[in-house]
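To assess whether the prediction recovers the assembly geometry, we first specified each molecular entity separately, as shown.
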Amino acid sequence: MSDAPRTARTRSWWGWGTEAGRLTAAETADLVTRVAGLLPDHDLTDHAPPDPRALGVPEPRVAPPASLAGLCSTDPVDRLAHARGKAFRDVVRNLQGDTAHVPDLVVRPRTEQDVVDVLDWCTSSGTPVVPYGGGSSVVGGVEPRFEGPAVTLDMARLDRVLEVDPVSRAARVQAGAYGPALEDQLRPHGLTLRHFPQSFEFSTLGGWLATRAGGHFATLATHIDDLTESMRVVSPAGVGESRRLPGSGAGPSPDRMFLGSEGALGVITEAWMRLQQRPAWQRTATTTFASYDAAVAASRAIAQAGLYPANCRLLDPAEAMINAGTAVGGGLLIIAFESADHPVDAWLDRALELVTDHGGEVLATRDRSAGDPGHGDDDASRAWRSAFIRMPYQRDELARRSMIVETFETACTWDAFPTFHAAVTAAAQEAIAKVCGGQGVVTCRFTHVYPDGPAPYYGVYAGGRWGSTRAQWDEIKAAVSAAIVDHDGTITHHHAVGRDHRPGYDAQRPEPFAAALRAAKAALDPAGILNPGVLVSPR
Amino acid sequence: MSDAPRTARTRSWWGWGTEAGRLTAAETADLVTRVAGLLPDHDLTDHAPPDPRALGVPEPRVAPPASLAGLCSTDPVDRLAHARGKAFRDVVRNLQGDTAHVPDLVVRPRTEQDVVDVLDWCTSSGTPVVPYGGGSSVVGGVEPRFEGPAVTLDMARLDRVLEVDPVSRAARVQAGAYGPALEDQLRPHGLTLRHFPQSFEFSTLGGWLATRAGGHFATLATHIDDLTESMRVVSPAGVGESRRLPGSGAGPSPDRMFLGSEGALGVITEAWMRLQQRPAWQRTATTTFASYDAAVAASRAIAQAGLYPANCRLLDPAEAMINAGTAVGGGLLIIAFESADHPVDAWLDRALELVTDHGGEVLATRDRSAGDPGHGDDDASRAWRSAFIRMPYQRDELARRSMIVETFETACTWDAFPTFHAAVTAAAQEAIAKVCGGQGVVTCRFTHVYPDGPAPYYGVYAGGRWGSTRAQWDEIKAAVSAAIVDHDGTITHHHAVGRDHRPGYDAQRPEPFAAALRAAKAALDPAGILNPGVLVSPR
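The predicted structure of the complete assembly is given in tokenized form:
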């Protein structure tokens, strides 16, 4: 059986990213001091991760055929590292040495034919198979949370950009390419996908497509869907490839059936993706508002103005304080425009007019196009971006110290937002009060804005009790999920459904569509081996 | 049995639009003179439409239950007028008095429950039902082209805007609303859908949704899909309604399964549509190029610049001459920007820089924002727009005079376009030469442009022989369809698949997706009554 590839060896088996990427001792000390200041009664004892080799990971219950053995890993730590995603509840379970639902094999195909062969074997043997990109799911999407054996299909070796079309600005890319490797291969062509989810470093194109990932752009191409020109998918019923088309009206979109299929309908092996030239003009403004309602109204005005900023991120006061170190009365709204073609001054100027029309103030602007160091103090926007990348590592350190640190995200229409936001925030705070005795903060930011509504992203920070933090979070999550579904939101805007969001998803989707999806699943995956429990199979 | 509503009584049973909208005698004489000049040998004898009451439309083979009888029309002319769409081949068959495949009943539901009741009756009796919006299909989408009885479900009575949300800028609209009625109901709210297909006056929201219609916008919201917030669909398996959401990542999009389902999966009864404020600033430029390649390159540059013009219509020299009365060496490129929020000068200025960078010349600009009569001569753009609306009426007059006048449309990537365009044009011209003895013209314009490719729309004008023009066109159409499919285009960018495009559609769609769609159809429509022959049922 083969060794794991290099990336797998440097990745943390229990937490986010790489061991090398973890907070330094000094950073950790600083973080702990800040939390101690906010929650003086909280027990911040550090619970280090266990030695994974001492956890007694069960022996594999299934053996691959000889023809596939060379692609398979049975290493206990490799399997443990593939047992779940990177949600707070995943990290906590790892820290506690939980070995439930560890896959029996990790298979790493080298070719699409390998994928076909693995699905053939799994179909004939009735072995469930979990397609796996970077494993950054925060919704239980890669966890074989079911009885019996499981195979995890890690696509990381299919990581090449196979073809670049500079005229149409598109590239054919294998699904296992991680964000950095993908961009590295595009850079010599002067092109970029510009899909930068927070997980960018540790997630793959195939994962983005299968989960309808949200990326860089606050408007227009908010999901990876819009950057997708065509896809190639291996299902047990056969291999399909959609045509490269800039647009089509020939029946329901084939790609839209597989975008968001979360490994339940097939394995995405490659896709033609729409690219862009690297931006030459970038202007950012940081603006503040005395009232949150005014900040929301300004965000809406910008979203409805047809200006299409790359960034239109509204932080509420708690988010601004915790993650941008900035005190604001009502909100911090960061607006950015970028272009490879033209200066964006007219665009930003008009957006800032809308800001001032709504009572906002411009705190700082920065012009990265001309190397302008900017005028005013935009530490707030820089601090936020830096914190954004480091957040999951901070989360890990706090999880070790019995803190509950997690996010949830959604979208709703603008007319619904005030009531929605109040209800969801209240549900979170009531649940925190109930399960944590009231020690907690709920923050909100808009990650994406649409003409008809925002995509709010909430953060929860609360002091838990060691040994109970997963259960405490689950209770908070159940409360906020119910509030989201009851108040006309979506159970997920860009984190996918996985296993964790099934109740909310089942409640919100139209039943005839569910029936159609079940039928499609039965046609494509008659043995029901593909990621059981996700989307359409029994919970 | 009820009378047909007023709209149905004023509509032409055999051709486009209304009898009142037909060309005047003077317009017809002018048109005929121009054609005679171009094709001096062509026999321009006028073949007037027959008296529909004298055609011997067969008696209905099926009777509705008493509970539905009040919704049903058995009037022969009403049924004849619903027997087919408005393609050239439909008009010709009407002119020739062809009474094949006339529906036995036209049912006009007044409520969604009526739709449910009709589907229940059709399911229990095994009677095929053809959902019908405005009947403007040009692909055989509304024609009961199968053996046995058929019911046409005309949605025209469900034509209300039920709710307007001015905050999120959206409205809940019944599917049977025709374009003008829809806009009339939105106007008092200062809002507009701005979906203006050529068929606007004679097509409905439900038809647009079911066929993924292309509309006003050359970029961004090119199809009605992008303007759709949620939909309500009645299928034999039940009624489903998706949630109003500005964006979501919860599994494959439910709406995207029904957008483009062409009445084969369910009947769309209403939808929440995304609206806009009426534009206050509109600027248009008419530009010319000495070479078509340069004009295409400029179109591509504008499509890839992130400027998002509302209009970016490239007419080739033949299209510019025939429909805009303008002689150009390489192409006529009409570019327009519009906004309800801000002046669009920066946008148009940059687009015109791209035009001149590619060797183009600005013929005229017009500023409708300020009531500016414009400088330069933009008769070309005005002439084109006026001709555009009247084209189907002209087509009808020419069809009466043995001319073959029809269009086909597609999309492909920019890298493929030169080869694609040459092959498709050659296929059309070869077919015209073969079936018409060479008397014909093929024109091309871009209706929509994307960063990764254009949507070319071709016109064919050729002299046929009375009695054979349908068969002649069918032969030309088969040749161009084969060329489109063989050269990496889509069989339709926004005219839908219907029955006419089935061979091309079947060739281009991935087989696993077809299997999934068949399964979805079987789940939603177990008796197979919904628009048989469309998308997934036997051809």
